[in-house]
Automatic annotation (TrEMBL):
Underlying gene: rpmG
GO biological process: translation
Name of the protein described by the UniProt record: Large ribosomal subunit protein bL33
Similarity comment: family membership: Belongs to the bacterial ribosomal protein bL33 family.
Entry keyword Plastid: no
Gene3D superfamilies: Ribosomal protein L33
UniProt GO molecular function: structural constituent of ribosome
Keywords: Ribonucleoprotein, Ribosomal protein
Annotated InterPro entries: Ribosomal_bL33 (IPR001705), Ribosomal_bL33_sf (IPR038584), Ribosomal_zn-bd (IPR011332)
One GO location term (cellular component): cytoplasm
Cross-referenced Pfam families: Ribosomal_L33
Length: 55
């Protein structure tokens, strides 16, 4: 597959729902929604962030 289809995602804090990070990846690689442990500057601690599709 030479096509690279990239989709923008934001990572939303599951605690305060702030969208702290923007990322992009190929949705064909991973079908599942990711949850990542990331630092939230609003909560000022590591929280779970889940992917939110932008477009
Ligand atoms: Zn937060």
């Amino acid at each position: 597959m030479a096509k690279s289809k990239r989709v923008l995602f934001q990572l939303e804090c599951t605690v305060c729902r702030a969208r702290n990070y923007t990322t992009q990846r190929n949705p064909d690689n991973t079908k599942d929604k990711l949850t990542l442990k990331k630092y939230c500057k609003h909560d000022r601690k590591i929280t779970e962030h889940r992917e939110v599709k932008i477009s």
